Amino acid sequence: MSLWTAVDAAAATGGRAQGDWAAQGVSIDTRTIRPGDLFVALKAARDGHDFVADALQAGAAAALVSRIPNGVAPDAPLLIVPDVLAALEALGRAGRARSDARVVAVTGSVGKTSTKEMLREVLSAQGRTHAAEASYNNHWGVPLTLARMPQDTEFAVLEIGMNHPGEIAPLSRMARPHVAMITTVAAAHLEAFEDIGGIAREKAAIFDGLEPGGTAIVNADLETTPILLEAARRVGARIVTFGAQSEMYRLHSAAISDDRTIVRADLAGQEVLFKLHCAGRHFAMNGLAVLAAADALGADAGLAAPDLARWQPPRGRGTREVIVLDGAAAEWTLELIDDAFNANPTSMAAALEVLAASTPRDNVGRVAKGRRIAILGDMLELGPDEADMHRALAGLPHIAALSTVHCVGPRMRVLWEALPRAQRGQWFEGADDLALKVHDMIDAGDVLLVKGSKSSNVSRIVDSLRRTGRRARPQIRDD
After folding, report:
1. Label partner for 434 (CA 20 to 30 A): which of 304, 332, 463, 465?
2. Interatomic CA distance for residues 275 and 266, integer angstroms
3. Residue 118: which CATH number?
4. Both 127 and 190 in a single domain?
C-alpha cells in the first residue's frame, strides 16, 4: 500500500499534483532519500528547491514544491503548493486524521529522545509501532513524523520539543495524542523564560492537544509538579503520576552499577522488578514513565517491563562503549560514557552520578589505579544565572568520587576554578584544543565521561577517541 498517492496528497494539502505518482515515504534530505519517497523542499539553511532535481534523479516519486525549480522538467512529478512548510503540516494532520493509532507524545527538559526510544522498543513488541526519527521534535519534525505514519499503525510515538514559549501547544494539537507525557522540568533553555515555572507552563502545554478523555503523565517529584497538575486538570485529562513521591507508579529503588540499573517499583499496586542495560536513576525514572504510558495506551505494562532490558541509549545520550587504546594489547581499554549531545544542571548531576557508580580497572595501564575522569563542556541557554549554575556543579555529592575533572569552554571556566585542586584537571577554551591532547589525559582502566551541550562541540573529543582508538563490540549480558 502506498503511503501517499498524488490524489490523496493533493487533497490533504490543497495543492496541484502533476502526474499520477504514489509515494512510499516522505523525505526532507537528499542524502538519505530512498527511491519512492516524496521529497519535501523545505527552506532551512539551504532552499530545498535547489535539490529537487537531485531528489528526482535519486528515484523520488515526486517533490513537494512551491514552484518548478530550475533544471526540473515542466511535467515532472510534483505537488505544487503556495507554502511548503504549511503543506507539510497539512500532510501531517491528514496522516494523523486517517489513522486509528493510539498516539503518545513526549516532552521534557531531559530524556525526551531516550524515553521515545524506550516506548518504541516496548510498544513494537505489542503492535505495529511508528516513532519519530532521531530528535525530530520541532515545527517540521512533528508534521514530518505524522506524514510518514503508515495507515495501519497501532501505536505512534511522537517527541515534542521547544526553545521558546508558544512552540509546544500547536504541535500537540497537530499530534492529538491520547497520552501526553512530561519526563521532567529543568533549567534548559532558561534564557527564553523568566524562571523554571515558565518552562513548566510551556511543557504543560502538551496537554492542550490531548484527545477527549486523554491521559496526562506527570513526574511527581518536581518542584514544578503543581504547575503540571493544574494544567492537566484544566483540560480535563485523566492524570497519572510517576516517581518516588507518586501514589500510582512509584519508584522504590534504582540500584546503579557499571552498566545496568535494577529498578524496583510499584505499578498501580503491582510490585515489579525490571532491568535496564544502562546506568542511571534518570533512566529508571524514564522507564517507569514508559510503563505508565504503555498502560494508558492499552498495551500490557507487565510485558513491557522486561522488554525495557532490550533498550540502549542513543549515541551521545549516555552510551557506554569500550575503546581499545592499543591494538596489540587487548586489555588496554578504557570505558567511554558518551553523553555529548546536551547538558543542563539536572542532566549533569545524573551523568556524574553514573560516573561515580562506575568501576575503573586497576593495574592495566601506565597509572596503577584506574580513574573516573570527566570532561565537561559548557551548558548553554541557561540565562543570566549561568555562571552560578556552572559553579554549583562543584558542590554536587558525586564530584567527590571523581579523580579528575577537565573543563571546556568559557562558561566552564568558573567550575574549573571552583573545583578542589586535587580534582582540577585542565581547562580549554574550545573542544578542538582538548581533542588534540585527550590521549595524553587518559589511560587504560579509566572510565571517561564526556558531557556538554551540543553546541559546546565536546562530541569532537569523542570522535577523536573513536578515530585513534578502536571501538570494541558492546557486550549485553543476560544476567
Report:
1. 332
2. 14
3. 3.40.1190.10
4. yes
Residue 108's closest CA among 180, 166, 215? 180
Please report, in range form, the residues annotated as the binding site.
Answer: 108-114
Question: Which string of b and e fits 400-416 if b means at least 16 CB within 10 Å?
Answer: eebbbbbbbbebbbbbb
Residue with cell 540499573: 261
The total number of structural domains in the chain stands at: 3
pLDDT digits (tens, 9 = 90+) for 300-356: 999 999 999 999 887 888 889 999 987 666 778 999 999 998 899 999 999 999 999
Q: Which residues are annotated as a binding site for ATP?
A: 108-114
pLDDT at 342: 87
- The model's pTM is 0.88
Contact by Cβ (8 Å): 52, 65: yes
Write out the residue range of the structural domain in which residue 56 sits: 4-83
pLDDT at 477: 42
39 within a domain of the structure (yes/no): yes
